[in-house]
Amino acid sequence: MTTTRDTLLGCLSVPRWADDVLAGQPYADRPALLRAADAAARELTDEELDQALASHPRIGERGGERSRREQAGVDPAAGDTAERLAAGNAAYEERFGRVFLIRAAGRDAEEILGELDRRLRNDDVAERAEAVGNLREIALLRLEASL
């Protein structure tokens, strides 16, 4: 099984990750490709983390079609959701100096807000690990959907 660099960069905007995944082609099957993508995403540097986050919209600020689908469970127009998300995003960015990222697919606004509140209590090391983990989950979901 093979994929393209453009497809990979659409899943996770980190050229080294895409190159690492491409280097193992062709893969015996879909699970082998996903395992390789998973392993390569676990090794993100701080620079790569920043690079990947630069292409992600804030939760509640839906970007392109893919982002809208992934955030389908979040209705910013419902109640005070937009205000709570804006306040949470601002607090997170002030605390950690980067956009809050979470795998939104399959989660509703309350679950995301709960995770945001919980993660604001993380130290820098724990939060970096959670951000990388969520990026990895997003990349794998996107890659799987593209196959």
TrEMBL record:
One Pfam entry name:
OHCU_decarbox
Q: Where is the composition biased (Basic and acidic residues)?
A: 58-72
Gene3D superfamilies registered for this protein in UniProt: Oxo-4-hydroxy-4-carboxy-5-ureidoimidazoline decarboxylase (1.10.3330.10)
Question: Region Disordered: what ranges?
Answer: 46-81
Q: Which UniProt keywords apply?
A: Decarboxylase, Lyase, Purine metabolism
Domain Oxo-4-hydroxy-4-carboxy-5-ureidoimidazoline decarboxylase positions: 5-144
Q: Does the keyword Lyase apply?
A: yes
Q: Which reaction does it catalyse?
A: 5-hydroxy-2-oxo-4-ureido-2,5-dihydro-1H-imidazole-5-carboxylate + H(+) = (S)-allantoin + CO2
Please name the PANTHER family in this protein's record: 2-OXO-4-HYDROXY-4-CARBOXY-5-UREIDOIMIDAZOLINE DECARBOXYLASE-RELATED
Protein name in the entry: 2-oxo-4-hydroxy-4-carboxy-5-ureidoimidazoline decarboxylase
